[in-house]
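Researcher: Batch entry, complex prediction.
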Amino acid sequence: MKTYSISEAAKYLDLTAYTLRYYDKEGLIPFVERTESGTRRFKEKDLDALRMIECLKSTGMPIKEIKHFIDWCSEGDATLQQRYDMFLERKACVEAQLEEMKKTIEMIEHKCRYYQTAVEAGTEDIHKGARLEFPEY
Amino acid sequence: MKTYSISEAAKYLDLTAYTLRYYDKEGLIPFVERTESGTRRFKEKDLDALRMIECLKSTGMPIKEIKHFIDWCSEGDATLQQRYDMFLERKACVEAQLEEMKKTIEMIEHKCRYYQTAVEAGTEDIHKGARLEFPEY
DNA sequence: CTAAACCCTACAGTTAACTCTAGGTCAAGA
DNA sequence: TCTTGACCTAGAGTTAACTGTAGGGTTTAG
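Model: C-alpha cells for the complex:
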C-alpha cells in the first residue's frame, strides 16, 4: 500500500510539515503510523481524514473541538450520536455563514458599482447627492 | 445630530468597547470625533463606516490592509482607482470563498447522511463495505 | 456634594494556530 | 566512509486580534 512522507503529505494537502507535526502533537492524527525508526508514514486514508479535518477547520471549528471528534472516532459506535449531532451543528453553522457571505457579497458589489461610477467621473462627488448611498468608506 | 458613546456604538455593532478603542489605535476610525474632554462620539455615518470595516473583515482582510483603504479614503479622489481595484479584488476573493464553502457543505452533508444511517443501524459497520465512502473520520 | 457609572490612555496579557530553531538520528548516494 | 538531506522532538518565538488592568478624569443621579 502506497504511503507518503510528511513532506509529501504536506504537499498533497497544501499544508506544511510543521503544521502536520503540530496537528499530531495536538492529537488530531493519532492514527498515522510510524516506521521502526519513528518516521511518520501517511496512508491514503490518513490524507482523507486530514481533508476532513481541513473541512471542519474551514467551518471555523477550533482544533481542540476537532480533537473531540477524533477522540469520539476512536471510541467507536458508542459515540455515533455525538458525531451525528456534531455534523448537524456544523451544517447549521456553515449554512449561517453562507447567508452572511451573501450579504457581504451584496455590500462589496454595491461598493464596486459605487467606485466604478466614481472612477469614471473622476470624483467621488458624483455620489454626494444620493439619498441612501453610503457617503464614504 | 444623534451620536453614540463608545459602549452604545459597540452594542449596535455587536462589538466591545475594547475592540472599538483597538480599531481607533490601529487607525481604522480616524474620523470619529471627540468631545472637549476627549470622549469619543460616534455618528450614524461612523457606524456605517464600521459596518463596512466589519464587512471587509468578514472577507478575511487583515486590519492593516483595511487601514490602507481608510488612508486612501482620507486622500480623496486621487486614490479612487486603488479603492475600486481593492473592491474588485475583494469581490473575487469572497466569490472564491463561496465556492469553497459550497464544497464544504457538500462534505458536511455527506457526513450527516453517513452518520444518520450509522446511528439508525447502531453501528458504523454498515458503511464498511461501501466502495467510495470514507471509511472513518 | 458625593458616589456610581461612565469615559480615557498606556501597556501588559491572552489565545489560536502556527512557525521556527537547536540538537540529534537515520538512510542513501559519491 | 562521509556527507547531504530528510526525518525526529522539545520547546521557544511569532502574529493577529483582541482582552483586560491600572490609574486617572468626567458626568450624572440622588
